[in-house]
Amino acid sequence: EDLELSGHEHYMLKEMREQPDAAETCLRGRLDERFATARLDGIGLDAREMRGFRRVKVLGCGSAYYVGQMGAQMIEDLARIPADAEAASEFRYRRPIIEPDTLYVAVSQSGETADTAFAVSEIKRKGGRVIGVVNVVGSTIAREVDGGIYLHAGPEIAVASTKALTNMGLAFAMLALHLGRLHDLSFADGQRILRGLERIPAQITQILDDEPAIAEVAGEIAQAASTFYIGRVRGFPVAREGAQKLKEISYVHAEAYQTSELKHGPLALINAQMPTIAIIPGDDLAKRNVAAAEQVLARKGPLVSITHPGVELDHLGVRSIVVPKNEPELDPILLTIPTQILAYRAAVVLGHDVDKPRNLAKSVTVE
Ligand code: AGP
To answer: Which residues contact 90 (CB under 8 A, 6 or more apart)?
Structure first.
């Protein structure tokens, strides 16, 4: 076991640090410069079929569902096709309408999550087209889908998923680019996204290099009984995933909220004992997000921002984790990385079994 850890204290730490290489592997051979698109031969659907889809529905559980939300947003942004994500665990218990012109996407690291596998078989039974975004080659979901995108993240041992999630983000970005170029995304925008994808592995390394500073913040978060993670639009799935990670391994309560919804209720909970982690990308919503941060600070709530260079926060005197900027559509992939480190370091400070958190299994193969 020690050998496999290759000197790392935990598998989660090792897997977080493997992310730049894992991302390279995921992108390798799939970026098509000539047509400014992504080559995803494993999907098994031809250009005519892909063009015919009028809607995309992503299904996954837990963190895979949150990355699925990021992916749906990327598909709407780049392909301008209505897209949304739903928890596969809910989908299986309602009577979903399966539409022939909807592309269903099942997302799962293990490919063995029962709720997601059941959703796939239900869609197939009713004649829907479903592709997989899966890490484990030959797994149940990978075998059942019509085609898909393998993540090539390598084996993931820690219960808390990290490198597989990052590669899910990349897979969705490539799917969105591919669909976009078959719809109305311009050649120039296709090239812009390709350039952005190429920058991601090195940018992940930059974030990982900031680990000591993030660890300091984690020490403070670990002392809290409860925390908020806030973000809006593209930042909201980042907040959801960040909150999930913290709960999973540090057992500190974390609630994800849309920044825009804070004033409609949860602001009442803000006080000096309730830290907020605010996702504030350097986009057209930055000013509004900074205003929300001011509201938290006015109520004496401690605040940490996960943000981009150039976002004006200095006047607030808050701690900021500054993440390198990429294209707006791809930023959520990178903004998520500090939330992994935060959760990991908080769990270490609290002395928890990081790789095997209580009550959780790596893949949930029961209902
Ligand atoms: C991630 O950190 C969690 N352990 C969990 O939410 C996980 O993402 C979920 O159970 C889905 O697993 P899958 O990707 O293997 O389907």
So the answer is: none
DSSP state of 314: G
So what's the ipTM on this one?
0.98
Residue with the smallest CA separation from ligand 1 atom 16 is: 108
What is the rounded end-to-end Cα distance, in angstroms, of the chain? 31
Check pocket membership of 340 for ligand 1, CB cut-off 6 A.
no
| Interval between CA 327 and ligand 1 midpoint (Å) | 27
pLDDT of residue 364 exceeding 90, the answer is no
Q: Answer whether 110 contacts ligand 1 (Cβ < 6 A).
A: yes
363 CB within 6 A, ligand 1? yes
| Residue from 113, 145, 157, 367 to probe ligand 1 pocket by mutation (most atoms less than 8 Å from CB) | 113
Residue with CA closest to ligand 1 atom 11? 61
Q: Is the CB of 69 under 6 A from ligand 1?
A: no
Residue with tokens 């607030």: 316
If you measure from the C-alpha of residue 106 to the centroid of ligand 1, how many angstroms do you get, rounded to a whole number? 13
Comparing C-alpha atoms, which of 31, 71, 53 is closest to residue 190? Answer: 31
What's the pTM value of the predicted model, to 2 decimals? 0.96
3-state secondary structure of 80: coil
Choose between 279 and 357: higher pLDDT. 279
**Cβ burial, residue 42 (10 Å; 0-12/13-18/19+):** middle
CA of 283 to the centre of ligand 1 (A): 29
Q: In this structure, is the dihedral angle defined by the CA atoms of residues 230, 235, 236 and 238, taken in order, positive or negative?
A: negative
The band of 276, judged by pLDDT with boundaries at 50, 70 and 90, is very high
Which numbered atom of ligand 1 lies nearest the CA of 159?
A: 4
Q: Could you tell me which residues come within 8 angstroms of residue 345 by beta carbon, excluding any fewer than 6 positions away?
A: 211, 214, 215, 218, 219, 222
Alpha helices, DSSP H, located in the chain: 2-5, 11-17, 19-27, 47-52, 62-79, 88-91, 114-125, 140-144, 163-182, 187-209, 211-221, 236-250, 286-298, 331-349
Task: Report d(CA 298, CA 147) in Å as an integer.
Answer: 51
